[in-house]
Amino acid sequence: MSVPSRAPGDIEPDRVGWPSRGEIDATDPAKALQGELLWAIENRIDYAPRSLQRRLGPSEIGKPCQRRLGYKLAGVEPVNPGDTAWYPTIGTAVHSWLEDVLKWLNGHLGTLVDGGPRFLLEHRVNVGTICGEDITGQCDVYDRATGGVVDWKIVGERQLKKYRENGPGDQYRIQAHLYGRGWQRRGMPVNFVAVMFLPRDRLLREAFMWSEPYDEQVALSALQRAEGITSMVRALGVGALPILPTADDYCSFCPHFLPASTEVEEACPGHPGTSTYVRR
Ligand code: SF4
Q: How confident is the model at residue 169, as a pLDDT?
């Protein structure tokens, strides 16, 4: 059977969700174009290669719900996949733009005494081990002039208000200290860790940066907790899931949330008192 030739980069109309001829309103080319453009955007987000990694990364280690981490470690398929991940996509796009901004800033600030750039950007650092396996993550910014480690977060208005009033919460705080440890293990001085919250839908002047002195013990305690969860899942498999403690961690947005589920090995009914709203 001959395969029709296709120029490199051509899209494949047979891929899932591509609007069929019947669905395209031929009388309204703008509407037809809208369908095609949205398909392309959703396709790039939904079909992006998914990590099948079963080990925890620095951005997850501080998640308050141990059962949620257990689902990932046990490789349980999500039951609450949610809508197309548009907000995370905005976050990723802004991260890449910010990297360009700091590359530009590096050029304008010249070089340090040893001839290197001031800001080290998007470096992979090794933050420590869990059950003997190296845990690595990509750190947004390390500033060689101040010994500061910065993580960008692009957030909505309500989150911004919450972080400004209450600080970054365990998950982001621990992530920042883990990156701090990653740099420390590379032999770099780490004086403070910071999370720069940038508004997704407000004016830039509402940006807020949280910071505190680097404390290796924050990272070590988090790694120890993650080691306990990992050991339990390795020993008991999905049998560990009903035993692992839960916490209120935006259950409606948890990929494993299924209201009234009785098979916790497959899906979670949520932390007691959680809303039964499902994000689909
Ligand atoms: S639904 Fe809530 S309690 Fe259950 S695993 Fe997810 S975050 Fe934890």
A: 96
Pair of tokens at residue 167: 């600080």
User: Per the domain annotation, does 96 fall within a domain?
Assistant: yes
In a domain, 118, yes or no: yes
User: What is the sign of the dihedral through the CA atoms of 133, 138, 143 and 144?
Assistant: positive
Determine the distance separating the centroid of ligand 1 and the alpha carbon of 117, expressed in angstroms.
43
Would residue 105 count as lying in a domain?
yes
Looking up tokens 């404390």 gives 215
Strand order from edge to edge, sheet including 119-130: 119-130, 133-143, 148-155, 192-199, 208-213
The count of domains in the chain is 1
**Ligand 1 atom at minimum distance from 250 CA:** 7
Q: Report the chain (280 residues): mean pLDDT per 10 consecutive residues.
A: 43 58 69 83 75 83 97 94 90 96 89 84 97 96 96 97 96 98 98 98 96 98 98 97 94 93 95 65
> Where in the sequence is the domain holding 141, given as residue range(s)?
86-224
pTM of the model: 0.88
Residue whose token pair is 């020993």: 235
Question: Rounded to the nearest whole angstrom, what is the distance from the C-alpha of residue 276 to the centroid of ligand 1?
Answer: 12
Any domain includes 259: no
Report the CATH number that the domain containing residue 106 is assigned in CATH: 3.90.320.10
Atom of ligand 1 nearest to the CA of 66: 8
The per-residue pLDDT for 273 is 78
